[in-house]
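Our platform keeps sequence and structure together, in a single record for each protein. Such a record has a labelled line for the sequence and another for the backbone structure tokens. The tokens are whole numbers drawn from a learned vocabulary of local backbone shapes. The remainder of this section carries one protein's record, kept here as part of the documentation:
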Amino acid sequence: MSGAGGSAQREYERRRDRDRERRKRVTPRALILIPVVGVVVYLGIVLVVAPMINNALAGETTSGKKHAKVAPAFSDGTVQLIAVLFAAGAMLTLGKEAWGRRATTEAWAKGAEGERLTASALESLEGDGYVLLNDLRIPGRRSNVDHVLVGPSGVYVIESKNYSGAIKITSRAVTLNGRRRDRDIKEVLREAEVVETALAGRPEAEVMPVLSLHAGEVSGSLFSEPTVRGVRVGSSRKLPGWIRGRPTILSQGQVQVLAGVLSANLGRRESIAPSTEPDGVPPRPDAIHEAPSGAGAPCTCGGTLLVRTRRADGTQFLGCSRFPKCRRTLQL
């Protein structure tokens, strides 16, 4: 599970530390402002709001020349109780804003946990000849690819989502608490395009985008419904079984080569162990272990510089992802 959720965890820690510094800065002002707001709210209700309501609802009624005075709509005790409750509510709201945990920050911790859960489920496939790459960087972007699984049945680009609430999966959309999650489908499709670009020139690599969910309340038959815009959606617990059931299209040597190329071009943190073909033939030289300097950098044409291998002598160089339209090369 090495590296799983690393980017999300680091972002959570960065935001958590920033929130702590913010709380330290606002604490002196908050200790003064919050009690003042509480007093203002209390006095405003007691001295302004309550008298206005009582005057509107409990005036005098006139019967001939006699005036019958009507009791106030709210007694003094009721007014004070209401004022205390409103003042306390205002103070709690300000206190939560000043010292409470931000939902946007906690979401990163939840996301990191979801990625670790997915990686834990996928690790069971390693004994079947699959290679799991976690937390791969996307060249030129701050975002990452949560998981790429390379194995006998192909290449899987897997995005983890640790949802809370009611999830419904249909052939047309994924909804969370009644709201469509189209952006999550678009996200994993973009990540699949990144992986396809990194594997450019390798037609044997079939890339399948997958959205892996962690949730307690899901409706829809997971991994039996049609895909959502080409993306398989379902529970991480059922994902290994679904992958095992797919036909074999890659040899173990091809698996290692593809995993090495992805590790180099997308900056995997862990090296890939050398492997051989079933007949003992060593993998091709582009089954490299670490991303060389310059891999993933933007090309002048707008493409991305990827690690390539010359067929003639097996030496490595940087070439554009838009080859053959762009023939720019750099020596490593």
In short: The helical segments are 6-57, 76-99, 103-122, 182-198, 239-244, 252-265.
